[in-house]
Design goal:
One of its GO terms (cellular component) is mitochondrial inner membrane. Its main location: mitochondrion. The structure is a single chain. This protein is mostly helical. It contains ten helices and no strands. The longest helix has 35 residues.
């Protein structure tokens, strides 16, 4: 397979390992309501039950997000070359416009939907269901048994919309930041720091652009969890056992909690996004350089010398 596939896969898996604890907080803040009611008493969902809860729901994303990230970068790189045949190196598309970069990123987001939709659904369910013994695997088996294969794509439409818009801004903001602060005379160490900074900025910009969509996606998928006494959730999205669609959820959520609820958890999400995407982009760029040199039978000594010289 191509170097961008493996670079995307490995960098995505590393990003999930680093960011899962903060993602768990973000999802629980999004799903929880602001006030208590008699039928389901409020519990602060950002408090962890134990240390093991820090990695709750991580198995599916580690496997799934690696594949998602691989598809994303492959689709983005191929789309960018298709949109602008003057681009010879998609990791450094200085000759193309930011508009084309956004479009290529949006196409990449749509292409990754086949993996992102079931991965997000399983992760969301596993993170919100606080009953003992619940894991990504038990959640996946339960969905398949009760909803079938099609059930893994519950909430797929809003997930696709979120990913398309979000990844458009992801690549756009990363390249825009690089063009603003990177110069040709930077040493390897300084260039690496700028990649970390640009990656972090891209992550924050991405989530800021789609966070309300992500809140609705989380609540839409959280409806499928049976609310039981031992399952400490506070969700007002179920009315008489009926599952609401995205538009109904938006209306009911806004009516009950106002506009601020659509940005609940954005702070912790931004911290997570900066850290995860800084590391992810640095890993991707390094792996692309390493794998490309290795597979073209070029010695890696030059790369190592460049690092050591700094």
């Amino acid at each position: 397979m191509s170097s961008d596939f493996w670079a995307g896969y490995l960098s995505g898996a590393i990003g999930i390992i680093i960011g899962n604890p903060l993602d768990l907080v973000k999802v629980r803040l999004q799903a929880g309501c602001a006030e208590a009611n008699a039928s389901s008493p409020h519990v602060h969902l950002n408090r962890f039950d134990n240390v093991r809860s820090l990695v709750r729901g991580a198995a599916a994303p580690i496997l799934g997000y690696g594949a998602l990230n691989a598809l994303l970068f492959v689709a983005y790189n191929r789309s960018l070359v298709f949109l602008d045949n003057s681009v010879t190196d998609p990791t450094n598309p200085q000759t193309t416009t930011l508009c084309k970069i956004w479009i290529a990123g949006a196409i990449g987001g749509v292409a990754s939907w086949a993996v992102s939709s079931p991965t997000e659904f399983i992760k969301c369910r596993a993170q919100l269901d606080t009953r003992p013994g619940v894991s990504s695997w038990t959640v996946a088996k339960d969905i398949l048994q009760t909803r079938g294969l099609k059930g893994l794509y519950y909430g797929g439409a809003i997930t696709c919309a979120r990913d398309s818009v979000g990844y458009g801004f992801y690549f756009w903001s990363y390249e825009y930041c690089k063009r603003c602060i990177t110069s040709d005379d930077d040493g390897a160490r300084k260039a690496a720091l700028k990649i970390l900074l640009c990656g972090g900025v891209a992550g924050v910009a991405t989530w800021a652009s789609v966070f309300p969509l992500d809140v609705i996606k989380t609540r839409l998928q959280a409806q499928t969890i049976a609310i039981q006494p031992e399952n400490r959730l506070l969700l007002r999205s179920q009315q008489g056992g009926q599952l609401l669609n995205s538009f109904q959820l938006f209306r009911e959520t806004y009516r009950a909690e106002g506009l601020r609820v659509f940005y609940r958890g954005l702070g912790i999400c931004s911290v997570r996004a900066f850290i995860v995407n800084a590391v992810q982009w640095a890993t991707y760029e390094w792996l692309m350089k390493s794998l490309t040199n290795s597979w073209t039978q070029a010695p890696l000594q030059g790369l190592m010398n460049e690092v050591y010289e700094t």
